[in-house]
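HOLO CASE FILE
Compound: 4'-deoxy-4'-aminopyridoxal-5'-phosphate
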Amino acid sequence: MLSQDGPRRASRLPPLPQAQPLARVWFDDRLIGAADARIGLTTQALHYGSGVFEGIRAYATRDGVAVFRLPEHLERMRIGAALLGLAFDPALATAAIRATLRANGHGDAYVRPLAWSGEGDFGLDVAGHSQHFMVATTPMAVHLAGARTRMSVSPWRRNPARSLPPLKLCGGYVNSILAKAEAKARGFDEALYLDADGRVVECTGANVFMVRDGRITAVAHEDALPGITRDSLIALSGAEAREVTLAELREADEVFLCGTAAEVAPISALDDRIYGDGPVARELAALYARVVRGAESAWSSWLTAA
Ligand code: PMP
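Model generated. Tokens follow.
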């Protein structure tokens, strides 16, 4: 609820990392000042969500700035772009991402490439619309802020894969926005999607893991985004991937979320179920932190120099 002193209180808070102004951005074929970017009001993606994006992270390592699992992120983006009829070249995107990171002098950073269907008429056919590509980078933005997350089962269902494939298509994220807003309105940080049979799907921007008797399980579901962090954690921990019910999640010793932005984020509560300290998640988070920073040589092939 808005209170009269809301804005005054808010102005005393330190700015969120995400709120920092962008400096240089890649727009179509070159770097420009972010303030110089202009897009038209008939942009099809603005009206209908016909775009595809990625969420990628770069880390300051001992050998310079490196991007974590860049080819895998761009391959996922390529598949989404192809579905939407958008031209997308992973090699050009790689060059644009490296150029933007270097232009902004970032170390730890969040990297956001986006390809979208642009100006044209108000029709749904992407043909006849211009096509655009951008890359923005911001100093590292951890959306779950490293804190232990309080999660609630959402009344919303995740987009079924046969309606919207689990890719990073812009319009699909309206579903995440609805679930996140509903969970926040009830005082939680994150929403957990279940399917009609009570199976766990994922969260609004992260995949789900659980730990029971020391065994790590990655939740598998056909409607969930096949997360690159999830894939990394399965490789690092040997976790089993399988379908999981809500009942199993509530009985687990630990539950944690993972994603590029969230990294490894322990869950402190799932509605009225409170979880204690999570030693397995803590250990995995520490290992993941070493891997992304190039401190585990066995996994250095996951890093691309910026
Ligand atoms: N699920 C959803 C819906 C997401 O948006 C994300 C973030 N990309 C994830 C899972 C985690 O995916 P990744 O590890 O590839 O970032």
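CASE NOTES: Helices lie at 6-12, 44-48, 70-83, 90-104, 173-185, 228-237, 246-251, 279-292. Residues 1-17 have pLDDT under 50 and may be disordered.
CLOSED: yes
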